[in-house]
Specification:
heterodimer; A: 157 residues; alpha/beta; B: 113 residues; alpha+beta; five-stranded antiparallel beta sheet; 28% strand
Chain lengths: 157, 113
């Protein structure tokens, strides 16, 4: 699965200005709503579901990365957005560090395989140091989207 | 309902050049596959041991102490994983990891992934 198959270009937030987990999640879900990827009336429910998932254990997986997510019946395919935070977000991460790269995923309840494939795609690219470096240096949505396209085409060393 | 029974296909404990090696095959019983929460539990448990801990599925082998590695597993419900530890306390590491799989990570998979 390619990153651009499920990351919604219009929902990307290159400069997140909040420093709390809830603030970050709210901003990212709002991005998905504004892009038309989730129904507006489901925004609050999706925020609540993502926050509830966080209560089960932080999705801050270390190395400055978090992948908050939830299943939700209002989507019929996996959709995701990316947010970058220069200052860092307190995400109660596994390694105790603040988070600078966030991927938020919303997947249909009946498609657990797509969720796993999305996580695989994200982690496969995040293991590439060049991808991480370029991503944290990006300042615009277009730069991030160009990077995703390069990563999907295996153009990054 | 958990339809599948954990499969103990292969248990090996031997000494190669004085390095204890232990491996065991387990089956993913979680309905949503091996998602982020169980991956996180595996990494946190594996990190408590000094030995190397790897997980192999199909032809891919990942470091069980690395979340970024574990996330690449894409292990769906029913997938068979070979857990392998090499080094000090290898047998204990595998025993505890198998226990984690046997407990289904104490996750109710009808909830969030």
């Amino acid at each position: 699965m390619k990153l651009t198959d499920f990351v919604v270009a219009d929902a990307i937030l290159p400069n997140l200005s909040v420093d709390t987990k809830e603030g970050a999640i709210r901003a990212m879900v709002a991005g998905l709503k504004d892009s038309g990827s989730i129904p507006a009336e489901e925004e609050e429910g999706i925020v609540a579901a993502v926050l509830k998932r966080e209560e089960l254990g932080s999705t801050g997986i270390g190395n400055g990365v978090a992948v908050p997510h939830t299943k939700h019946p209002s989507v019929d395919r996996l959709v995701a957005t990316i947010a970058l935070s220069k200052e860092g977000v307190d995400f109660a991460s596994l390694d105790g560090e603040t988070v600078h790269i966030l991927f938020l995923l919303v997947s249909p309840p009946d498609r657990p395989g797509d969720h796993l494939r999305g996580l695989e795609s994200i982690s496969r690219h995040l293991r590439n140091q060049n991808f991480c470096n370029f991503l944290t240096q990006a300042t615009t949505s277009k730069q991030i989207l160009d990077l995703l396209n390069e990563a999907d085409s295996d153009e990054l060393e | 309902m958990k339809p599948l029974v954990l499969a103990y296909v292969n248990v090996v404990m031997h000494v190669v050049s004085k390095t204890p090696v232990c491996q065991q095959t387990v089956t993913v019983r979680l309905e949503n596959g091996l998602h982020l929460r169980p991956q996180s539990q595996i990494a946190q448990l594996a990190q408590q041991f000094d030995c190397d801990v790897n997980i192999r599925v199909d032809n891919r082998t990942v470091n069980a102490k690395s979340m970024f590695d574990l996330m690449t597993l894409k292990a769906a419900h029913g997938a068979e994983l070979c857990l392998k530890a090499s080094g000090v306390n290898a047998a204990e590491a595998i025993r505890q990891l198998v226990e984690l799989f046997e407990s289904d990570f104490e996750i109710d998979d009808s909830s969030s992934p």
